[in-house]
Amino acid sequence: MVRGTPRGRRAVHGRRARPSGSGRQIRKVDHTGITVASLADSLEFWVGVLGFKHLYTTRFPNDPFIENVVGVPGAALVLAMVEGPGHSIELLEYSAPGERHIMKPRSCDVGSVHVALLVDDLDALLDRMKQAGWNPVGTPQTVVEGERAGLRLVYVRGPDGATVELLQPGPGAVSSPKT
Questions:
Q1: pLDDT digit string (tens) for 102-133?
Q2: Is the dihedral of CA 147, 107, 155, 43 positive or negative?
Q3: pLDDT values of the chain reduced to their tens digit, one per residue, 179 residues
Q4: How far is C-alpha 25 from the geometric centre of its chain's CA atoms?
Q5: Contact by Cβ (8 Å): 113, 163
Q6: DSSP-derived secondary structure letter, 161
């Protein structure tokens, strides 16, 4: 509940969000998709550096099916699905249309998204990620109070602008907020 909103409804840009009701529509999160410049480089990172498992690669030539799915006229792409502990990442390399842009939003920019990974050894993984061209946007920080006290975390950004948050629970720290 957000304080100051009536009957436990969350305010959304000046409006009240509708209550969710008793029936859930979402079963679980299936995957997170990331558009990349090089599928080969991205697979090397997600599989070689982070240890995700490469499940499959599929090519989608331009046709009405893929145009309607992604909402981009002329789209053609190759995607690879990789699986990590508890979550899958879909890597998409578009070959068309030609007028694609590389966007490297800052964390505060609307539309910026990150994937958060719980890790055992933040410093060791951070070193491996740096060698692969993924650099921290700041220095690792430690939560000093509250449920997550002791948690170390840092954002790391890749060559394509994608952001991964690394979280290393400290002694007694709650690794995920209660929902």
A1: 888 888 888 889 999 999 999 999 999 999 99
A2: positive
A3: 333 444 444 555 555 666 555 667 888 889 999 999 999 999 999 999 999 999 999 999 999 999 999 999 999 999 999 999 999 999 999 999 988 888 888 888 888 899 999 999 999 999 999 999 999 999 999 999 988 899 999 999 998 889 999 999 987 666 665 54
A4: 22
A5: yes
A6: S
| Average pLDDT over all residues of the chain | 86
What DSSP character marks residue 97? S
Phi and psi, residue 89, nearest 5°: -120, 130
- Name the token pair of 24: 């859930």
Instruction: Quote the CA–CA distance of 173 and 87 in Å, as a whole number.
Output: 22
Chain-centroid distance, C-alpha 127:
20
DSSP string, 22-87: SS-------EEEEE-S-HHHHHIIIIIIT--EEEEEEEE-SSHHHHHHHT-TT-EEEEEEEEETTE
Relative to beta strand 152-157, strand 135-136 is: antiparallel
Token pair listed for 153: 């975390």
Identify any residues that bridge with 11 across adjacent strands, giving them in sequence order.
16
